[in-house]
Amino acid sequence: MGIIAFENITDEIKARLPKYPMPVLHVGQLATDIRFQGKGVSPLLLRFAAEQAVAASKSVSCFAIQPEADNERARNWYLKRGFMELQPGGSRFYQSIAALEKAMGLSPR
Fold first, then answer.
1. pLDDT tens readout for residues 56-93
2. Domains and CATH numbers, the chain
3. Using an 8 Å Cβ cutoff, are 77 and 42 in contact?
């Protein structure tokens, strides 16, 4: 668990967030063993992380999930799945719990 640090995000994102630190579930790097790449494992890992974030948001205040991408391929993978960059060209992304719930077909909190 952590927060989105306002000094590390763009003014555009700041305008969409409340004026206080937003709690998030940090996800280091989701990685798939090379033997399993291209076999649908990565979306399952992301779904698991999203489910954990949604569950955590019910017991501790959690606004979003915040994964990191360590290369351009990973960056594009997160962007393709609707995650937003905290900084243009940066390695950190976020997706709100409300958006995750909607994507998973769950009723919002």
1. 888 888 888 999 998 898 899 999 999 988 888 888 89
2. 2-103 (3.40.630.30)
3. yes
pTM of the full structure: 0.80
| Averaged pLDDT for residues 39-61 | 88
User: Are the C-beta atoms of 30 and 46 separated by less than 8 Å?
Assistant: yes
Quick one: pLDDT at residue 80? 92
CB 81 within 8 A of CB 100: no
Residues 63, 24 contacting (CB under 8 angstroms): yes
3-class secondary-structure state, position 9: coil
Please give the C-alpha separations between residue 17 and each of 5, 21, 46, 72, 106, in angstroms, as whole numbers: 11, 9, 23, 26, 23
3 state SS of 23? strand
